[in-house]
Design brief:
By secondary structure, the chain is an alpha+beta fold. 34% of the residues lie in helices and 22% in strands.
C-alpha cells in the first residue's frame, strides 16, 4: 500500500541521518522495518505516557489542521499491562533541553529514535501521524496547552470525551 506523501516523508526523515543511503538500506533490510535516526538536528521528540499522550493527540487533532509527526511505541508496554503505548511528538530541535514537565521524556541532541518507514506496518513502533515531508512539527506551546486540556479531561471524565 502506498501512502500519499510517503516518499517526501522518507526524504525528510533521512535528511537527518549521517548516511541517508545507509538509512534507506536499513529500512529495507531490518526485519522490523525500522531505522535509528538522530534527534536534535531538525526535530526533537517529546515522549508522553500513553494515558496522557493519546488524549493529547486527540486534542491536537481537534485544534490543528495537521499535527506534526507522532509515533506510538507499543514495544515499550509490559506484556502483562493493558496501558496505552507511549507517544512521541516531533517538536522543533532544542525543545527537549528546555522542556520542564513531569513524566515527559525528551529526546534531543545526542539521542537516537527508532523510526519506522513511513506508511509501512512495523513491529512495535508505528506512525499515528505521518511526517508530511515539508517539516511540519508540533509547536511546543500548543502541545503544552493540549496536554493541559487532555489532563483535565482525563481527571474529570476518566479519559472519556463529553
Amino acid at each position: 500500500m502506498t501512502i500519499p506523501g510517503a516518499k517526501t516523508a522518507v526524504e525528510w526523515l533521512v535528511s537527518v541521518a549521517p548516511d541517508p543511503d545507509a538509512c534507506r538500506r536499513e529500512w529495507e533490510r531490518n526485519p522490523l522495518g525500522v531505522a535509528l535516526l538522530p534527534a536534535g538536528r531538525r526535530w526533537d521528540v517529546l515522549i508522553l505516557p500513553g494515558e496522557l499522550g493519546r488524549p493529547t493527540l486527540d486534542v491536537l487533532r481537534q485544534i490543528l489542521d495537521r499535527p506534526g509527526p507522532v509515533l506510538a511505541d507499543f514495544e515499550a508496554m509490559p506484556r502483562s499491562h493493558a496501558a496505552m503505548p507511549r507517544l512521541g511528538f516531533f517538536v522543533p530541535a532544542g525543545t527537549a533541553s528546555r522542556w520542564l514537565g513531569t513524566g515527559v521524556r525528551g529526546a534531543g541532541r545526542g539521542s537516537w529514535i527508532v523510526v519506522p518507514y513511513p506508511g509501512r506496518a512495523t513491529g512495535g513502533v508505528r506512525w499515528l501521524e505521518l511526517p508530511d515531508g515539508e517539516g511540519t512539527l508540533t509547536d511546543p506551546g500548543v502541545l503544552e496547552l493540549a496536554m493541559h486540556e487532555a489532563a483535565a479531561c482525563v481527571l474529570t471524565h476518566g479519559g472519556r470525551k463529553s
